[in-house]
Amino acid sequence: MATTKTLNDLFLDTLKDIYYAEKQILKALPKMARATQSEEGKAGFLQHRDETQGHVERLEQVFELIGKPARGKTCEAIQGIISEGEEIMEEFKGSPALDAGLISSAQAVEHYEIARYGTLIAWANQLGLSDAVPLLKATLAEEESTDKKLTQLAEAQANVKGKREAA
Ligand SMILES: [Fe+2]
Ligand SMILES: [Fe+2]
Known about the structure:
Layout: H1 7-35, H2 39-65, H3 76-91, H4 98-126, H5 132-163
Bound molecules: fe (ii) ion (FE2) (2 copies).
One fe (ii) ion binds near residues 25, 48, 52, 113 and 143.
């Protein structure tokens, strides 16, 4: 069957995808904060949890701008990334490499978000949704800065610690 779906439909579908993903991430971050061993890691996860609340709100503003109800659409990619993180929490519990593993999961989450927001910004520009662009860019900047902080945390502490054998 021929279809008349356009970039507008793609934009809306992807907005629903990342809205669902952000809400899942909102639930996952406190669990990651609880599981992580370093104080700096815990603080980082909790700080990004607060930022993520803002990401959900910005997406709600974008839905409003395009006159659509804010609704999520199941995102299997984020579910998979989050379950891999939960697997690390279980399998590396109490081990020196736990934090290195948790940081790697968190970076997989950030990179998923960075990919989605990058696409949404390009499409919003194409569609002339000029009020949506700064909202999406503000969130993208926070995802990128979180990704960088995670790299620093891994390189400064977690990877070194993870190399040690358990006593
Ligand atoms: Fe986010
Ligand atoms: Fe994020």
